[in-house]
Amino acid sequence: MSTLIHNGSPRRSAMRRWRARLAHFGVTGWLGMAIIAFWAAAAAFGPALMSQSGDLGGGDVFAPMSAAHWLGTDYLGRDMLARVVEGARYTVGVAFVATLLASGTGTLLALLAAASGRWIDGTLSRALDTLTAVPSKMFALLMVAGFGSSVHMLIATAAIIYVPGSYRMARALAVNINALDYVTVARARGEGTGYVMLQEILPNISGPMLADFGLRFVYVVLLLASLSFLGLGVQPPAADWGSLVRENIETLASGGAAVIAPSIAIASLTIAVNLVIDNLPGRAARERGAK
Amino acid sequence: MNGLLFRLLAQRIGLACLSLLAVSVLVFAVTGVLPGDAAQEQLGQEATPESLAALRAQMGLDVPAPQRYLHWLGGLLHGDLGTSSTTQLPVAGLIASRLPNSLLLAAVTALFSVPIALTLGISAAVWRGSWFDRGASTVAVAVVSVPEFLVATLAVLVFAVQLGWLPALSYVSSVDSLGQLLRAFAMPVLTLSCVIVAQMMRMTRAAVIDQLEAPYIEMVRLKGASPLRTVLAHALPNAVGPIANAVALSLSYLLGGVIIVETIFNYPGIAKLMVDGVTQRDIPLVQACAMLFCAGYLALVTTADLCGIVANPRLRHR
């Protein structure tokens, strides 16, 4: 009996757990999921599907919405829909990679800190605390001043800025798990630090860290958009949504679609992620725990 | 005041100074050391060994990095911030001409946003679950999860373009009367306040709700105190620490928001100066501005910490 449970149940119970989680999703949660899926698909397949390439240009400048140009045209007469879809690639792609790096590094360092001795823990925590003493936009400006601006640089900058946050979150969770009996049992069994980190602690903090990932993704999107808006992020002719707003800001006075479309794109993405996070079960409990 | 409290406060302040020192190392490393040889970059293709050596000597790059750092740090402490590499003017003078503008903007914003945020936050906490709370919280989430430049462009669209009430750009030089002051500051302050109020309101609401859910409040209700008395006389005094903490922390968001707002509205403040410095890669200017911002940020965060400690009665009366 016990072997049966041992063999058959983990996957099934994991599926059931996921199904139970999804059942908690409210309408707003599903709406958020749909918007995220839409932008992810736009970033992945959009440019291949679009007939009009972004650098065509030459048409009417700031043309209004029409059948030929669904979102009008930009300051060089390029099709705005194509620009926004291409921008999705930069905004969603760069932010996703940067968040993945930040969250992954932060979680790994936190596991290391929790599972190993006081000395490593103390050093890591102090070092990363120093980074949080610099406001995020300020650090981004410093990096751009020092290294110039490129996509790789932006990813590295955003990743470095958000490592301390996810480290702190993961460490708080991991330290609690580390004090539980089954971790002590694993250690007594003679398991190494790596095993304790990855097999005992990581599975038990992955849920909250996923929510944290979403939150940090929003921060990264906002940071990158702001940098691009200042002209210090993604450089032309490439454009993310922040640069699109910057490029077409002159049409703001007439309420043109060229400036409203990328703005709505940014807002829809960040609000969608927030909606999904708010609908994750146990959110309230985590908020209380995080304080 | 007692010994323990004093020791705690001194410890926090000492820690903040240490952090600032660490930050200065970080700032110097990111801008001055890690990117490689600035002289090489400036000369580019035309670099001959002689011209390279001469420029290095002129920029002080022939000295090892730790020594350069100490020299720079010593200069900072003496108020000598170096010379801007683009304008060749002393950085201290550039900053001194811009800093009052930024401080004024921050002060006016704080003056506006703190009372509004506290009122909104406390009322949302008292009537939590009501339509007012839900509406205010939803708007706050929306504002927080949208970049500042979007709030700013929306504000321009509504108040300057559609309604035509306010000028879209602001120039502080032309301030003679209160009316002009209001007009010049309206857009930047409005934008900054939106973001700060949303942050502060959320944190204040959480702090007050935390108190309202404590057992002693139930006791107060059971003994028959009116709702107003429950909140003002019982919950608020205990929430002062967390609220002061929230206010100081939210004000530290000013430092990030001001970068965007000053650029959009072309406001002659210190953040605009720094963004221009970054665009032109004027390293001495960027370093000085960054240190100034980080010092301000640390001061606010530490104040938040200190408020929390001072307001904790368990530490005060021991």
Quickly list its features.
heterodimer; A: 291 residues; mainly alpha; 11 helices; disordered N terminus; disordered C terminus; B: 318 residues; 13 helices; 78% helix; 0% strand
Describe the structure.
The complex is a heterodimer of chains A (291) and B (318). By secondary structure, chain A is an all-alpha fold. In chain A, 75% of the residues lie in helices and 0% in strands. Chain A has helices at 2-23, 27-49, 80-115, 118-132, 136-147, 151-178, 181-188, 193-229, 241-247, 257-279, 283-290. Chain A starts with a helix and ends with a helix. The relative contact order of chain A is 0.14. Chain B has 318 residues and is mainly alpha-helical. In chain B, helix 1 runs antiparallel to helix 12 and helix 7 packs across helix 8 (178-212). The model of chain B has no long low-confidence stretch (mean pLDDT 80). Chain B is built from 13 helices and no strands.
Outline the secondary-structure elements.
The complex is a heterodimer of chains A (291) and B (318).
Chain A: H1 2-23, H2 27-49, H3 80-115, H4 118-132, H5 136-147, H6 151-178, H7 181-188, H8 193-229, H9 241-247, H10 257-279, H11 283-290
Helix pairs in contact in A: 2-3, 2-10, 3-4, 3-6, 3-8, 3-10, 4-6, 5-6, 6-8, 7-8, 8-9, 8-10, 9-10
Chain B: H1 3-33, H2 38-43, H3 49-59, H4 65-77, H5 91-126, H6 131-144, H7 148-162, H8 178-212, H9 215-222, H10 227-264, H11 270-279, H12 283-310, H13 313-316
